[in-house]
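hi!! sorry for the late reply, been swamped w classes. u asked for the two structures so here they r. pasted raw, havent cleaned anything up. first the sequence of the first protein and right below it the tokens
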Amino acid sequence: MNKYRTHNCGELNKDFIKKSVLLSGWLHKKRDHGNLLFIDLRDNFGITQCIADKDNKNFSDLEKIPLETVIKIEGTVLRRSNETINNELPTGEIEIKIESFEILGKTKELPLPVFSDQEYAEEIRLKYRFLDLRRKKIHSNIIFRSKVISFIRKEMEKLGFNEFQTPILTSSSPEGARDFLVPSRLNPGKFYALPQAPQQFKQLIMVSGFDRYFQIAPCFRDEDSRADRSPGEFYQLDIEMSFVEQEDVFGVVEKLMVSLFKNFSKKKMLFEKFPRIPFKEAMSKYGTDKPDLRNPLLVYDISKVFKRDDVKFEIFKKLFKSGSLIKSIVTKKTNTKPRSFFDNIDKWAKEQGWSGLAYFSIEKDENGKIFGKGPVGKFFSEDSLKEIMKITSAEIGDSIFMSCSKESEVHDIMSKSRNKIGEDLNIIDQNSFAFCWITDFPIFELDKETSRINFSHNPFSMPQGDLKNLDLSNPLELKAYQYDIVCNGVELSSGAIRNHIPELMYKLFAIAGYDKNTVNEKFSGMINALSYGAPPHGGIAPGIDRIVMLLANEKNIREVTMFPMNQNAQDLMMNAPSDVNEKQLKELNLKILDKIK
């Protein structure tokens, strides 16, 4: 028999009454009623209530033990009285009469309470993450994460995929985020890079003839923290398939996501066949390529209305003539909302650093004349209001919010305003998941500061069109078989059908300023492999952390990550990054210079 326990703290019930048991765990809570001491003993599996009365020889010693001490308890299972049954616990019908105990692990004074899930300073939580992870909510999240990953593995195997592991030490890539570099002791002055993603390796797996690959892959990027992105490292479900078109990839991912989200959440799925939204349409209708389709609000371009002589909104007209766009959002039947509703949204917009959101409601007087009610409504004639109503499908009683700015900025304003207004109106269905695909991304984009043409996404994506007669004269017009999967406004992943034709790859890289020699040097393994009979292939890599965050209904990725770093990419618990000694630096032929100002 195991000397620490006969059972765990989550499995005892009325079937075990009068049996002697051994339990081990952490002292979760104590309640001292004078003549009776209640102890909640906790382990990974649950909580069991243990009792000792005043006559128990262990009573005074048990009273003194601090919370979170690891103890072993020997005792007898008793039935609780009806009025003390706790139906919220699997062990709620029984309790253990303590006959003896032993301290297995002492504790120092706690820097944060474990029995409570109350909010605590992030610095304390991360420094003492091993204590934070004992707390019920985050402990459950991490176990939940494990179950999600296990489910994904089984589903991928059902779909005919094999799991392979790719190298962690690889070469640096000139594209994407900053690399984490690792100096090579055996090759002085040279560096490995930790993989930002197994992109090249998974394509090489297809060239090797394995057809369907997946991996729960660790990825490393030296980038800033966000609520939905950890600095340093993250995990993704890496997928690659041979002899496929875009729809084949969509089919596999949709099957997986529908099965996964139905299995782990009671929320409804708005679409089991995910909508396909071209990138240009997404930016036009939602102001973002990460739209939350639970929100019914749309964005409309009403710029042309400001060409009219009977529109007297001179500030917007002047900006429009200088190249700005005027975008709007329509809210249905909100003319009866109090002035504070509109003013609060305008105030919020100014807090974002914008000039605010202009607004008015569409009304009709007793003579049937349409007019604008609100701060800027007076600047619009009846005919101009009718034109706005035609463009936006607005009706009498609806309200119009407007912003005017350059294209990239107005998209950002409208996207965030759409979310804010949707939240304030409480029209976003919080009990649902809305997936979609964003498709037809441009291959290239123009850097407005340098006027250089850069890859907009993955440089290895296959262009759309007739590959034998592809017109490269207008590179900014070229679209790729590139796609993003989005859920509830969260981008889970980018993917693409890959460019497996070396000659075409050289041409596209040349547009972005890479000559043939540079491509051969930076992507030697890839280019060489593609020259030996590469199949058409494509894939995607949804983020595990973000998937679990959505399923667990958490807003921050650190709540579903076991040992995350803080926003400065520091591990406060392990004191990383840390200094290294002179001997280590010498072995690596490195020298620390003073910080460059």
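now the second protein. again sequence first, tokens right under
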Amino acid sequence: MSFSPGTTESQGGAAASPMPASGPLADFERALTAQRDDAFAALGARFYTRLPGAPLPAPYVVGFSNAVAAQLGLDPSAVADPAFAAFFSGNFTRERSPSTMSHATVYSGHQFGVWAGQLGDGRALTLGEVEHDGARNEVQLKGAGRTPYSRMGDGRAVLRSSIREFLCSEAMHHLGIPTTRALTVIGSDQPVRREDIETAAVVARVSPSFVRFGHFEHFYSHDDVDALRTLADHVIARFYPQLREADDPYLALLDEAVRNTAALMVEWQAVGFCHGVMNTDNMSILGLTIDYGPFGFMDGFDANHICNHSDSQGRYAYRMQPQIGYWNLFCLAQALVPLFGAHYDIADEKKRGERVVADAQGVLERFKGHFAPALEARMRAKLGLEHEREGDDALANKLFEIMHANRADFTLTYRHLARVSKHDASGDASVRDLFLERAAFDAWAADYRARLAHEPRDDAARAAAMNRVNPKYVLRNHLAQTAIERAAQKDFSEVERLAKVLERPYDDQPEHEAYAGLPPDWASSLEVSCSS
């Protein structure tokens, strides 16, 4: 297939089933096609290609989020509609008129630090956007078939990766971490080749916007300043209208990206989450976690942990994530440079350029001022320290050091620290047992107890506060793998059960205690890669 942005192509295949004329699903579909003047789809053909989804044979529902349905104003009863699976696999998109047909967007980006040129939605189609309770969200089908930007790929996602994205995006939301969300996973027995033969699936993901750093890089790389400005104006008008009053709205947009990305890096580091593919095309302009490919929550803490088996150089290791976030912001700033400085009263082009660069660098440098204090505050909260004192940062870093040396479980270490008493070692056992070098933990615990002596809260109040910021349940790889293996046998109960557990990550759920335990030995052999 040969495409360029703006063209419309049919992907052929069997005819789509008739769309129901009435009911919750039909109402939702009509809402999606009611295009608004300030929607991304209104930007014009330079930004996307309209095309239908490729038919997915015999689709079936694997997972469904009632909460996301409610967010979209979709009656959850729609999932029982026989047409539901067909609709959210993309099988109905071919019935639409050219002006309301689904679309794939074009963008570019740096992948693993190297300029990759034109990329784009290689397997994702945006159906449109809906408004409910004053909030607007785009709905996108990931895995709906080849697009102009597939770069020789098949345009499909597999059941394995789709379940992981569905579960993790919802888990991240309930952890309080900015993220895209997922409405449903639709499966099919259609074979798809990755390392092995797997089956196809589509995940319907939801976000206020899917605009990435790479969208801006694309038009910068093509020296299309008009399109670059149009895109930036769209983001400002939709999400940051107050920036229109700034001296330089585009520099202010960069400032928002710096602030939001720094905040996101704090959230990731604080729960031991590793993204795995922090390419610029996988960075949200809104500071959302986006594109769940190879990712993972750490079990045993390793500051150098690499969750992506394809990342042989460790570029996206856990400890590198804040630095990579900053590097990606630099790429965004470079892409926005042609828009900066319109208000400067400087005739000399050289001096004007120097001023632009200096101002952009000044905004980028704010990343450190946002990130470091916020992470320190988060670590104090994780340790139950209500008031800042000298030495708190060293205490937190020392814990990281002995956790790293002992590969102590990240989630359980912080969760069990809530049991430590400020008075004696009577509550140390459950966290102490996570460390092979007990003497190292005992020495740290003595310093911790001395610090707790300066805290006004009693043990019970401190423990309750710690348990509100240290999750008990995260999407560990082995939990996801179990759900995937059962789903491959058409047993979707574990997907549903796990999703429910992850809706309450900070609560004790005695009936689900097994989901909060140490991973089994076989979990260490699990690998995720870019094929995920």
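hope this helps!! also noticed smth abt the second:
Residues 6-15 have pLDDT under 50 and may be disordered.
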